Amino acid sequence: MLKPIDTTSKDTLAGFSPAEEGRSIDDDYDPYKHRTINKPNSTFGTFVHVMKGAMGVGILSMPYAIRNGGLIIGIIGTFLLGMLYSHCVHMLVDTAYKICKRERVPMLSFAETIDRACALGPPKVRPFGTILKNFVDYYLMIPIASMIYMVFVGSTLHDVINNRTDLDWNVRIYILLAAVPAIVVTQVREIKYLVPFSAMATALIFANVVISLYYIFKEPLSFDDRDLLPTFDSLTKFLGAAYFAFDATSLIFPVSNQMKHPEHYLGCPGIVNVNNICLAILYSFVGVVGYLRYGDKIRGSITLNFPQEEDLAMVIQILSAVAILFSIGIFFYVPIETVWRRAHSRVPEKWHFIVQSLIRLAYLVAIVGIACAVPDIGTFVGLIGAIFNPILALWMPIIVDTIYRWPSHFGWMKWHLVKNILMGLFGLYLLVTGTISSVEDIIDLYD
Q1: Confidence class of residue 360 from pLDDT cuts 50, 70 and 90?
Q2: Is CB count within 10 Å lower at the N or C end of the chain?
Q3: Rounded to an integer, what distance in angstroms lies between the CA atom of residue 91 and that of residue 93?
Q4: Which one, of 183, 337, 323, 313, lies nearest residue 256 by Cα?
Q5: Is the CB of residue 314 less than 8 Å from the CB of residue 164?
Q6: How many of the other CB atoms lie within 10 Å of CB of 182?
Q7: In the Cβ-directed half-sphere of 440, how many Cα atoms lie within 13 Å?
């Protein structure tokens, strides 16, 4: 496990402003060389986690997204949104590195980066550091992805088994059955040992893509009546779906802080850049050919366009469920790592293993309990994600970068500041439109 550092003291930060003191960074101190990690993850292992963190079964929804974006804007927009997300990651991690270098600390978490950036900023923003730090930490403690995943696995098993056998089990039974292997996956506490699970999940998703391409290319593709450009309403749906198809903000610091060679995370080519280029190519290809094949008949997930009575279509559902089950481990790691970072100092060291195991088990029991109590929880959790994901994925990197550069390090004609303002407005646009869409989904659920 990563050894947490003490970030409660701000004696070295209070009263310090980059504008007042200049950016005197000790060139002799390299945070990467002072990290103590018991079981560091390899560059390839980190790449697998980063790709799995962003790419889920949602890739099978890209044809629907491209339909909303139109062929031209859909393709160009997918690459531009991938670049935008990469830029946000670069802003966040690069600023964290500069703060570590100046403060001579080996690493910072997501929340600690925001806290220290505020402490180094203008006096008026310093009180907000603790508020934003707690907001990020408490949000990351909510296992949103894990809750949605447990419901997805249970619902998929319910549909496949009940429709092809004489069983008439409730979806809650399948959620409980899925919880049994999840106990094993969620007890893996070293991110290095989660690599095989992420790799298997990614392989299964690729297998789904291959089967989907088989159905897509069974008949010739057609450009007839395919939209090249979107309407305003459909563009809104495309932008939200496409941007968050790249989003794995919660994993940025957990995976980068556990790397054996953290310098490989950013840079050129760098894990972040290579991953998002690969995803943009894959998303665009699957999205375009799927839309060309089915046109306006394309469904929310392209698998719904396949003949449901065929065994191969059933295989896609099963592979999706297993892939999601393997994915729970990496997404479970984030809330547990956040809780443990705040709680470990209160637990005697000899009890660390037992207490952390109990925390993991308690989290899983709570997730399964909520999923069983409210099988439609995914719709409500989607509203939480629509509100807070733009804040985490866009606004927080912007806030950190802007405060750190304040007031005179924004470049020629303050282009960094102008760029950050435009990105912030885009984040507000995603927040508003995503919230409206999620509320409409909840209304439709009970209509």
Answers
A1: very high
A2: C
A3: 6
A4: 337
A5: yes
A6: 23
A7: 7
- CA–CA gap between residue 154 and residue 171 (Å, rounded): 6
CA angle at 274 for the pair 272 and 280, rounded to the nearest 5°: 100
Phi, psi of 299 (to 5 degrees): -100, 175
What DSSP designation does 300 have? S
Taking phi first (over 0 means left), then psi (-120 to 50 degrees means alpha), and beta for anything else, what does residue 301 get? beta
Give the dihedral of Cα atoms 42, 48, 49, 54; nearest 10 deg.
150
The set of residues, in sequence order, having a beta carbon less than 8 Å from that of 228 and lying 6+ positions away, is 70, 71, 72
User: CB of 247 within 8 A of CB of 275?
Assistant: no
Reported as a single tens digit per residue, the pLDDT across 372-421 is 887 776 666 667 777 888 888 899 999 999 999 988 888 888 899 999 99
100's tokens: 């570590």
Task: Give yes or no for a contact between 330 and 194, defined as CB atoms under 8 angstroms apart.
Answer: yes
Phi and psi at residue 37, in whole multiples of 5°? Answer: -125, 125
pTM exceeds 0.90: no
Round to whole Å and give the CA distance between 174 and 181.
12
Q: List, in sequence order, every beta strand (DSSP E) within 23-67.
A: none
Question: How far apart are the C-alpha atoms of 41 and 438, rounded to whole Å?
Answer: 37
Helix (H) or strand (E) holding 421: helix 415-445
- Using H for helix, E for strand and C for coil, what is the string for 64-110? HHHHHHCHHHHHHHHHHHHHHHHHHHHHHHHHHHHHHHHHCCCCCCH
DSSP 247-297: --GGGHHHHHTTBSSGGGTSSSS-HHHHHHHHHHHHHHHHHHHHHHHHGGG
| Among candidate residues 438, 405, 398, the one with its CA nearest the CA of residue 92 | 398
Provide the token pair at 54.
């962003």
Residues whose CB is less than 8 angstroms from the CB of residue 184 and which lie 6 or more positions away in sequence, other chains included = none
